[in-house]
Amino acid sequence: MNSVDEAYLGYKGRIAGILKNMGLDVGDRIKIARGDRVFEGVLMPREKLYGYRPIIVIKLDNGYNVGVRIDETARIELVAKKKPRIFTKPKIVQRSSLPHVTFLSTGGTIVSKVDYETGAVKPALTVEELLEWVPEIGETAYIDAKVILNVFSEDLTPGHWALIAEKAYEEFKKGKAGVVIAHGTDTMGYTAAAIAFAIRRKPGPIVFVGAQRSSDRPSTDSAFNLKSAFLVAAQADIAESVVVMHGETGDTYALVHRGVKVRKMHTSRRDAFQSINDLPIARVFPDEKKIEIIGRVLHRRNKDEDPLLMNKFDDKVALIKFYPGMHPDIFEHLIDDGYHGIVVEGTGLGHIANRLIPVLEKARKEGIPVVITSQCLFGRIDLYVYSTGRRLIEAGVIPGSDMLPETAYVKLSWILGSHTTDLEKVRKLMLENFEGEINPRLTVNLYPRWII
Amino acid sequence: MNSVDEAYLGYKGRIAGILKNMGLDVGDRIKIARGDRVFEGVLMPREKLYGYRPIIVIKLDNGYNVGVRIDETARIELVAKKKPRIFTKPKIVQRSSLPHVTFLSTGGTIVSKVDYETGAVKPALTVEELLEWVPEIGETAYIDAKVILNVFSEDLTPGHWALIAEKAYEEFKKGKAGVVIAHGTDTMGYTAAAIAFAIRRKPGPIVFVGAQRSSDRPSTDSAFNLKSAFLVAAQADIAESVVVMHGETGDTYALVHRGVKVRKMHTSRRDAFQSINDLPIARVFPDEKKIEIIGRVLHRRNKDEDPLLMNKFDDKVALIKFYPGMHPDIFEHLIDDGYHGIVVEGTGLGHIANRLIPVLEKARKEGIPVVITSQCLFGRIDLYVYSTGRRLIEAGVIPGSDMLPETAYVKLSWILGSHTTDLEKVRKLMLENFEGEINPRLTVNLYPRWII
Question: Interface pTM (ipTM) of the complex?
């Protein structure tokens, strides 16, 4: 057998040689016999990083990809060449009488749809691709679609928040009823909080939507979440920055979470997003086109509202988690390196080791605001209960109330970027409730039940 | 009116002068009339920090403390001097036939009991004080009590973990059936994980217990938690390091959480502690003296087990939370400052910004192990799903599976301190399941329900 040095369809070495010699292409139907087992499916491309492994990846008819080990006994056979695609473009008629919604794509799993011919995952980014994939959204909204970014959500920075805010703002200035923003789930909560702050006087909803399972998996949540998000953007009487994602494991309802109060709480579940210290604003039943308000609505839709863009974020702000045995050097470094603000995730009611209080006091004396939040996530900071808290107050630390550490970080970055760097003004604005990021009343039902 | 410069009973200035001139003491019953209102109760001492405020604090008969503002119209009157205490020591007879349990006190709200005469909160640290306060524990165990530390839990360090492990180990070597450790709630999860690792081959349970509400409040959870903890230490067929705290808002049951899987999830609720990615091991009904196993028991009680102390912790380990806009300088600093290990709280399945991967690779090249966990808390790390994860694998990052970030931090500190600093051995040991810190099977019921 020959082998090729360069990659072929992502495969390398011996496997690349076999595939090239047989003239196989991605999308061809092949059969691999090894020992007494036979695997049949569609040839898939290989991730280059693993291309050197002696494996061929095929998509089985049940939708799953498998890697078949190619040893000396393996026999590969072409079943059918990939059919040349005879493309009859479906006629998509949009109804302009429906609310006009713009779909802004920033990247993430949500914008990946399956090419059912090859089984490969490709982005769905145009109006035609979206409506071909999830036709129901055309019954809810008149859609425009724009790609504004294409990055993994873990790579987003405060500079990207500014861009996303500007693009959403422009759509409102054009009179759009709502905006849907496709976003990777990893940092969606941070960005949803950032946009909540960066667009003042929102005329309608800004709806962040993502997918926990990519669209080549049977359990994908992409279409369900998209239907729900467009319904909220077009029809919900809410003018806030929200996250719309699956509400439970089934396909019954999605939840509308306030952007400043939401957090990704599970690595992989479809209902990973949860409101913390707040009820979700609404429940959405996309197939019945029903939106049921279950929480607090702080801003109602008002198309005469003139939005204001305040989208400068300071990118020299740190979010630091306290842990036992933490040394002051981490804070010393932030001061020396000219950081402009620090949010600390303390323990319990908002504590850190007493030995670290002097360095936080030093930060304040150098004009760096320090905000304390809790790694408990649930409940509210209270610095008046124990002496450590009272020492933190004396040191000038700003209490974060019941704000999520992530939201306090975004808010501090926004206040330093768009408002002021004056320490006393920063304190005043951090304690001000802009977007419901502080819930004045934490009721007993806001804590989940662990034992079911 | 005279005033005194120095504090009197914690009061300062004008108020100190009034109280001193009247010859009042803490514990005296007084009446304060102001306008048409009259307040009567027991005079309380004042926190020095707030002593200058024109307020006198009294404990009302309903148990609550109130601060009464003393303006020019206020009239203060002595109702009755504090009664000299005629102490008839209750005869406490312990039954040595019961399982022998040692109570080790490290500090925290739990060891504060109310002096019902003065209303002041004082520590309960001796066997007599404990049994006088919560007589029921004498029906469960034959008790010994020792004060090993008196620090706020936010001030504990890995050095304190070593001490606590040693003291608990010594009790097992003496043949004790179990150990109860009174601990502040703020960092109890961290310490419970540390002791889980530091004592190998535990013959019986090590039970951490704390209180969310101090014992001068009607809603105190101290006595309930203590009864539950002693019951577990004396009778539960579990030989692990566990946390025993209220299971719900009422006084019906406590939960036994595995120390390596537990987290304080609320700043103030009595049921703040929750098992993450694991069921609690058991439910405890202290008044019925009933223990119901509801989860996995990994080690059963065995009094012939010969415990092994491995209590060295490396205190140059950092726990760093990733956030959007994070700069590499924080990691650069840890490398420059000679840190020995780093645990990162990534997003989602275990991601960080791609721009930070080179500095983590640099850390590994300098011999510093880097472990990745998820700030989602629930679910498991999977670095094979997205390219960012695969790049992290290539960079030599150690995946933290479903370990809590806090537990991964404690474990890395223990492995570096008690086992090895060899990078490949550290990796192997981090992936080894010592104490159930990795749950091989995450079932669907391990995720709490938010909407009730």
Answer: 0.83
